[in-house]
Design a protein that fits this description.
The chain is an alpha+beta fold. Helix content is 31%, strand content 30%. The protein is built from 8 helices and 16 strands. The strands form 2 sheets. Strands 7, 8, 9, 10, 11, 12, 13, 14, 15 and 16 form a 10-stranded mixed sheet that branches. Strand 10 and strand 11 form a beta hairpin.
Length: 283
């Protein structure tokens, strides 16, 4: 059984709880971040913690823990669990309220450690399907616990294509991001990814570095039509890593199989994470 950190205590997952009066439950006021380990080391922990704190700032959510404190809590939580590779979810809640609406300033911190839930191998060998959904997300640069738009978008996507692995937010006809991923296209010899009105993924940032090491990259708007007509498409996230997309809205991408440039990027990602697993310490 997993051991979680809940507001100062380490408890079995089955015993983890917060009061029903917490604003995370009453008003959906809270933030989170998620990362995984490689070789038992939390991947880019510092970047994830900085994003967590930035999310709190964007929501004006009281977050009294600094990066050093959060780092130590995460590492303690990892040591109390015994997974080969772990997924780590940090949640900062709005805390209690005197009137059930406005926060009183006492936020709560939860750190959940679970075994990594690896995506099925066929998504990487054969590619995945996605569906575009016209939907605008509030405060997209903050990673909030409000996933109502994402759940709604995924339900729409699954009605259109029951095999879709992801719904892609589209705003005014332009691709933005997935509900739980960022996205890139490869077209005319260049990788392209949206640049604004999205959550800046940590995996996305690392993939951008890999692309710049070996190719060209543009950060700009991508229309739905351009997305569907791309030579290659990928998703990136902590859980999906670098995942090839072979159908958008049931329209085949390229020849309907993971492309050469995607496979090259996937190999580069694996080499990089293997080096990370073997390094001393973590980032």
């Amino acid at each position: 059984m997993s051991v979680y950190y809940v507001n100062g205590d380490f408890v079995d997952a089955a015993d983890a709880a917060i009061p029903a009066s917490d604003l995370a439950l009453l008003r959906g006021y809270g933030i989170f971040d998620f990362l995984r380990t490689y070789g038992g080391k939390p991947f880019q922990l510092g970047a994830h913690l900085r994003r967590l704190i930035r999310s709190a700032e964007l929501l004006d959510l009281h977050c009294p823990w600094d990066i050093e404190e959060l780092d130590e809590i995460v590492m303690q939580a990892l040591r109390r669990n015994n997974f080969v590779e772990a997924g780590i979810r940090l949640i900062v809640t709005g805390g209690d309220s005197l009137n059930g609406f406005m926060p009183a300033g006492e936020s709560r911190l939860i750190v959940m450690v679970t075994p990594v839930n690896e995506m099925a191998a066929h998504y990487y060998e054969q590619g995945a399907d996605v569906v575009t959904v016209e939907m605008r997300r509030d405060m997209p640069e903050a990673k909030t616990i409000n996933y109502i738009p994402g759940i709604s978008a995924q339900k729409q996507a699954l009605k259109f294509n029951p095999g879709a692995v992801e719904a892609i937010y589209t705003v005014d006809g332009n691709i933005v991001e997935g509900t739980r991923s960022n996205t890139f296209i490869f077209k005319d010899g260049i990788w392209i990814t949206p640049a604004r009105d999205l959550l800046l993924g940590v995996t996305r940032a690392e993939v951008i570095k890999l692309i710049k090491d070996d190719g060209q990259l543009e950060l700009r708007e991508i229309s739905r039509a351009e997305y569907r007509s791309a030579d290659e498409v990928i998703l990136t996230s902590s859980s999906k890593e670098v995942m090839p997309v072979v159908k958008v809205d049931n329209v085949p991408i390229g020849n309907g199989a993971p492309g050469e440039n995607t496979r090259k990027l996937m190999r580069a990602w694996r080499r990089m994470t293997e080096r990370y697993a073997a390094m001393d310490g973590y980032l």
